[in-house]
Design goal:
globular, 7-stranded mixed beta sheet, two-stranded antiparallel ribbon
Length: 213
Amino acid sequence: MTASIFFRPRRIILTSLLLLSCAAVLALGGCSSSQPKLTWKLDTSVRGHLPDLAFHLTDDNGMAVTARDYLGKVNIVYFGYTHCPDVCPLTLTHLHMALQKLGPLANDARVLFVSVDPARDTPAVMHNYVTAFGKRIVGLTGTEAQIRTLAKRYRVAFSRGPSNGHGGYEVNHSSAIYIFGDKGHIQLLATPADTFTEVAHDLRQLIQQEHAS
């Protein structure tokens, strides 16, 4: 009985110290239990497996640009071409709707539409095309070599189809949508099959996450 009485105050003191320590950690923001875990709708497996955003191209105003000119915002990169009959206009409309859903946060994001048909997609042609989809979409073109270098960097496949007999042709291309953080690191991968609501959800989380870092 004597031993039991002797050790009880010590246990109380140790318990109190542990409680005080935990309270201090919580006060300093060291406990993450109060912060909701982020749930992503899009593919996050590309993080650390694709290189940072990098290129030397020409924008739809005819200016030579590099990826560094677009850092500071979340960049949504999509490869396509202005003569595309269906997938490209639908995808750009889809992305425009996702940005609209963000409200004021859309000011922290942009779409970079990279042409895989530089022979026809001059800066002027690109400008007329992208402005129809909203002010946050930038058209990028360049030489065949520049486009192929960038496409290879992000594993984008494209090839010119046969002539239709009237000088026109289609270009077969990958439809992946690459989403980079404001420092140029790859963060998410989307496809035209993802709804604009899902894209907007992840863009919102990503922008807020970038603001907090």
